[in-house]
Amino acid sequence: MKRYFYDIHCHAMNMSHPNFLAFLKMFEEMLFKDTDKFLKRNRFLILLAVNFLMIKFLFFKKFDYKNITNLLKKVGAAKYPNRAKNLLATMENDIGSFFLLMEECLMDNSIENGQLVMDNKKYDKIVLTPLIMDFGSKTVYYDDIHYNNRPVNKPVVEQIIDLFNGIRNYKKLSPYKMFEIYPFMGINTKNYSLNDVKNMLGTYFGNYKGTHQIFSKKMGYFTGNPQCITSNIYAGVKLYPPLGFDPWPENKRERMKVELLYEFCQEKQIPITCHCSDEGFSIMSKEQMENLTSPAKWENVLKVYSSLKINLAHFGKQDHSTEWQNKILELIITYDNIYSDISHRGFDDNFYMDFKNLLDNYKDEHIKKKIKERILFGSDFMVNLLKTDSYCEYFEVFSKTKHFSSEDKDLFCSANPERFLFKS
Ligand SMILES: [Zn+2]
Known about the structure:
This protein is an alpha/beta fold. It has helices at residues 20-31, 37-41, 43-60, 65-74, 79-91, 95-109, 156-173, 194-205, 212-218, 252-268, 286-293, 298-304, 323-334, 349-360, 365-372, 391-400, 406-421, and strands spanning 4-10, 111-112, 115-118, 121-123, 125-130, 179-181, 184-186, 236-239, 272-275, 310-313, 338-341, 375-376. The chain has a 6-stranded parallel beta sheet, with helices on both faces. It has a 3-stranded parallel beta sheet with strand order 1-5-6. A 3-stranded antiparallel beta sheet has the order 2-3-4.
């Protein structure tokens, strides 16, 4: 029997997909979060240089090394623009080439005789579930600049077409075909009417079977017309509160839409991945974002839809506070189908050490076992390039950590995601 390795959380976007203003905003915030006093003191200078550098790269594809990189080197921030360049260089590719680049990186470093090797385990194929993000919300990021006094127009359908073309091309062009690629459909119920939500669910999941076999049979078929996307092509649903999605809105009309979504997904056991971290593309104030993104928001949902299959992604906040993590763990213990992926977390071995210590705090072996069976490996590639240099570098931190046995790691990257993704 074939063995599968899963990366349950990644993104495949090119330059035209994200809203770059949201992107700049995220980058600005990140740059000053964990960095030192010197950077904070020079915030304005660096901000100016980084923005200028990224925009110049976007439009003219070249850098003014003399002036900008030297300036950044001088203030000790050179790695940040390099990371930004690396990320943008990835996103310059069409999506098919983007998957080929990811594959090439693993081929060069971690694949032996056509199998991904991790400790004493070997995996025949790698399943990727790129998460579509709906950037279509009507938001202004910088209301003080001329062309952003009205929201940008960005229909998600273009991202969908590019992604499915990319999967088809990857399947055609890859000499190794290590990847099986099953996207998650991004939806923000706020952007649609109740009827639209109903139609979307019917179109994309009406005949949902949830078996690995049917997804693998359909992978790569795409005519270029989005209408040929029907059931058993999307493997799940992606929700993203920082772009305005509210998991449990007070407003009655909005509530009906999410109730429809949860009812439908619970009934068919369709997996949902919801962003659950204090970082990421955001269109709102920090307070608003934290309120919508907090795992506590899911308590009310789960009281009604207790067997909903959901991945609260990123395992809580990045800032070393434990409140969100503890809430996620509490939900995992209470309910049967709650998962949490560790994407955008394992940038160095310290994360795995802390994570191991956290699990060891649970003395009850049953609880500890249950938690271990709900953790999912994810990379958050290409967004994670803001903190790492390549896909394989992120993978290697996971594959090499000694804080977890290869049996535990096999749970995180194979057994658990398989259970999350597919019906048995
Ligand atoms: Zn993500």
